[in-house]
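Bench notes, afternoon.
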Amino acid sequence: MAIAIAPRGPSDQTLLLAIRYRDEMADETPEETPSDAPARRPPPPMPSITRNLMIIMAFLSIFVLFDPSLRNALGDAAGVGLTPAFGFGGSYPALTFLLAGSLTTIISSVSRHFFTDWVRMARINKQQRALQKALMDSLRKGQAKKVERLRKVQNEMRQETSTVMLSAQWKPLAFTLLPFSVVYAWLYKFVYTDVVGRGHLYFAVPWASQANFLAIYGWFQAWLLLYIVLAIPIGQVVARLLKLFSFRKRLAALAAQGGAG
């Protein structure tokens, strides 16, 4: 669906010049009649292997969180590779949490990137802003029929947005829950074996010179909160880099098509 972008000005609502929106965005006239174009219906949901895999991974993650025997067994198995790579003999637990968080965050960001059409999301956001502006303008002018049409289009766009957002949020879980469960099981074993065993229980934070890794804040222990806090900025950086790569790749493809034409 091609979208023509008009220059900014009083008629900025012409951002929505796709055939689907042309009648709805047009100004109301005395001879105006409702559009005869059939409403676009979202495609019916298809059975998904990814959904079934996500359910399986979710149950496995729950068992890892609450079953000590499964958690210890998984932690021992993961430790064969993770302990030599990130363990440092328990001497630098904060660095271990940073590297482990980087690993799971990069996996999560890459998975989400492949299930998210960033260009489509940007297009939808621009359409929504233009549609909202046109709707507010029609309300001020008292164009009741145009308001009704625009609200129908707005509902359709919400369904499309929900489909895109759900795909971007839930499908990657099928591929990220297992790595997170494995790393969590290994970190749990690492903390209570290497960190506690070597007496490296304390770390410095801006508000305290000594904070205990085993201290509980709300529902989480300090070591798990530290792992999450260290992983968040890395995930943001990786996600933005991947998004930038997607937009540059699309722009290069459009430029190549223009040059070929």
